[in-house]
Fold this protein.
Amino acid sequence: MKIAKILFAILFCLGISSSLSAKKASSIRIGMCTDVHLSTMHDSEYRITTFIDAMKKEKPDFIIELGDFSTPEPKYAKYFDIWNSFPGDKYHVIGNHEMDNGTSREKAVAYRGMKSSYYSFDKNGFHFIVLDGNDMKDPEVKGYKQFIGAEQLKWFKADLAATKYPVVIFSHQGLAHYSSADQEYGVENYKEIQSLLETHNAKSPGNKVVGCFNGHTHYDYAENINGIWYITITSMSYHWLGEKYAQIQYGEEVDKNFKWIKYTAPFKEPLFTVVEISSKGTIKIAGKKSEWVEKTPWEMGYPEALKKYLRPEISEQILKFKLK
């Protein structure tokens, strides 16, 4: 009789343990888009409306755009209104083009109702960090910035050290390094950032950084570096080709009113995704395909070496990681 009671007690405890383990597992669904470039495209209202309508049906835990959305000019206010019509939580990342046309970073942040250009929040058992890669490294160097400065790094280190949850990071410029035909991508101090993340993971294997999402390059790409996924989501709208590959694709009238489109390879339909992350060790990226509007970049002479990154789709992927 005593043996039976002991066995029952053991099985009961195992059941509780199993139940507690199950409760510890958490998951979250994120609606994600990036590089909408609302001021560039003639059909921007259609593109952002399509995303928001899809998210209202999908009902993710929150939505986020990874930068290069729009400048805060009155003529673009309706696009922000469409974004804000999503009934759930929504977040912004500051991209380099948010400061176009003389807009300051402070004004871009304030217009979006953000308290800071970098911040963090917890949701569904995960810790999310939004970084700003637009800090100034050298005041003498003009043009767009790709750097995370000392003040932000100090905050970042303290925020990482304080979290009790697995970490996901969002930024516009990537935290890994990419080279295209004529440009270097990724924040300039990416090695310092990666070292910081890897040190954190070695000390905190149960609440490690599992993935870093970025936009900016208009690539579709994921790479695992020392146990951390660096995931680039492609643009909602197009890939930038530049003056050398200019081509009128939507007719003379559109070209007259939207002067930058001719330098792009646009996607027929807007690209975006829903990402599901589980503490059981998976990052699931929902795939979405479109087509080039006219000629492919390769038909226009664009470097074919970039084919592995550059396509009119977001690849469906299941990326695996391990928590202690």
Notes: Residues 100 and 162 are 35 Å apart (CA to CA). The chain is about 25% helix and 25% strand. The chain has a mean pLDDT of 91.
